Amino acid sequence: GKDQWPRGDEGVWRDGMRTVDKDVQAVTRSIVGHVQTSLARQAYNLDNLGAYQAAALSARDDLLVNWNTTQLTFTRKQPKRAYYLSLEFLMGRTLDNALLNLGLKDKFTDGVQKLGFNMEDVIEQERDAALGNGGLGRLAACYLDSSASQELPVWGYGLRYKYGIFQQLISPQGEQLEAPDPWLDNQNPWELPRLDVTYDIRFYGRADRLDDGTGRAVWHGGQEVLAVAYDVMIPGYDTASTNNLRLWESKPQRGFDLNSFNAGNYEGAVEASNSASAITSVLYPNDHTTCAPNRSIPIHFGKELRLKQQYFWTAASLADIMRRFKNAGKNIREFPDFVAIQLNDTHPTLAIPELMRILIDDEDLTWDQAWTIVTNTFFYTNHTVLPEALEKWPVPLIENVLPRHMQIIYDISMNGQVLLASNHVSDIQLTAFVEGQPKQVRMAHLACIGSRKVNGVAELHSELVQTTILKDFVEFEGVSKFGNVTNGITPRRWLDQCNPELSALITKTLKIEKSVWLKDLTKLEGLLPFAEDKAFRAQWSAIKQRNKERLAHHVQTTLGLIIRTDAMFDVQIKRIHEYKRQTLNILGVIHRYFALKKMTPEEKKKVNRRVVFFAGKAAPAYYIAKLTIRLIVNVARVINADPDTKEYLQLYFLPDYSVSLAEVLIPASDISQHISTAGTEASGTSNMKFCLNGGLLLGTVDGANIEIAEEVGENNVFFFGHLTPAVEDLRYQHLYHPVPIEEKCPPLAFVLNQISAGVFGGDGVYEPLLNTIRQSDYYLITDDFDSYIATLEMVDEAYLDKEEWIKKSIRTTAKMGKFSSDRAINEYAESYWNIEPVSIPTGGL
Ligand code: 9GP
Questions:
Q1: Which family does this protein fall into (predicted)?
Q2: Rounded to an integer, what distance in angstroms lies between the CA atom of residue 781 and that of residue 754?
């Protein structure tokens, strides 16, 4: 329509439009301008932080031009859009990525240098946006990058936590301590406050069903909280396409409650304002647990606040999606033709009853009409089959906080059962997702029944979803509703940005533009013949060596530790969790330590030198995981100080793992460990990052490890351990036919006894951790230890044959094309969301 064009003279508008195509002079002018005006600082005594802020604002101007054009194009063309609802987006730093995607990295590097700064130092000033716990949040970030890069109309929706994942400190005793992460303190140039985009979100109160036979209800009273939008621009690589990530902040509706204030109840008034702001104040630091196992959780991490976060975010996002849909003037029945909503895990499942509520209570649709729309709109991705990670909400809690939604959930459950009966399914338990005593709602079941399709994140995992937790639904709804989309990673951040030298070598070798292979990662296969080329191998290995030195330099400047770089770098970095088995790794290190101590000097000469790195956070209330960290830190102290061994074995726990730390660690690794008990790691994504950077994989037959091995060939990976089908039996035997460790696995018994005897200090503090292995050993350490040690020895042997090792490394990188998140996001776009790319013109109206 006409209102899509500007007021006044179009030519004058066009003339005023900024464009992105800048030369170095335009870059420096823009940076200087921001120093002068946006920062109000002087040219002299500007520090690195100031330079970063000005450079960021300048890059942001460019992003905004593209972002505006993209949004305008969507509004005009009205394509079907997809919305990615994720409670976590682990973005990391933005400046470097923005410049790469805009194609302005060289010009900015040049310009910044002319202004007297070094680009690397400037980039280092940025704090990570750490609005996530681990793989699930980082996956969401990679998917946004790929969506924009492929010009797909996808928006993300999340929460703007004031505090991201806690900062991890290590105490003198080796314990994890947590400090807040006030990442917004230095102001955030990458977000645009949209103070005009707000919604009122209701909690508590009453839901009264109307007795007019329509099934409608009126929900009223309770508390109303304001949701305010903040937009984060997501630039695509080598395209103007720039998507949006909309994050919600909670605010009290009217500053504070004037009524209470006037009635002299100052405290009450301020309290209401506090509780409204509390909703988006902090990211929940629990990974794979709805609350910590066997522990009472601190009050500020209470369940009710988590439920309020989930509803606040889904309700604001749906209201926003609905408003956009209606502005386009479409009929509500067409909703699924224009909107696809992806539920990232069960966290946004309340969107299902919320959309039902909107359609029935506000839009006057019948139950059946509403249900048809809902079940054609949502898609659900499951990310874990671990029982303790499957969300369940107590019915009384939902009834109190969201009374109308509880009614709807009951109705969905009842309708499911009626359907079942009519399908002659005998076991009507299966949609009883409201169950147990006290009654709980199983969110995975609700997400499944309310979605058009359900997928897992790697082949094995998707099969387990169908044969275990959602088995009944497969029978009931048919297998075609269930699928697999193996996870992926963006090669822009996880190769080009974090490993620029390797990226340059690849471009030179493939003799194609970087932008070609970075957008079609299968092109890496062209490296295969070069595995046979000695000169190429030398370059490949020299880059690995420089990446090790870069890591050593980083550790020296940040922690003051000297690391030797003439050794194999062996890395395990991920959340600390029993199922991921960092314990197996540290027990293996201790085993190696004692083996070294027994060796003669002659024997030692043949030893493969190893530096072992750990990094990762433990949930603050996860006692066993925290003990694991403490053990690693204290073993490191003993080993690194022992003159008998320190030349051959070093061990480091690097504190405060983050996206930025991963970017330094991953390119430096020779081998990385992904050693979860078979069947427990849904996919893993760091396994892909290491392999893409030419690190080899030591792992169990689990998650995406399996598909990586299929691609790169089993002779290029190191597998060990029992397979998934054996796990249940082994656990059964531990419980009913236990064999003492001394008999079952003497080398492991020796290691455990040394820890108990206090060789690594601790005064008995590790007993609860050791007992998890001595007693039920749920994660099968005793079953897999021998094959783990044997495989570590194979790795040593393989590494000593340097040339063969480099060949494996090259072949691994060459075959990682499948694991680009571009491939994954295309599968979602085509087979799930049914959306298509929209090409975006560069610049202008
Ligand atoms: O544990 C999975 C991890 O294996 C996977 O790579 C990641 C992304 O799909 O999701 C993790 N799951 C969760 O964080 C919680 O369900």
A1: Belongs to the glycogen phosphorylase family.
A2: 17
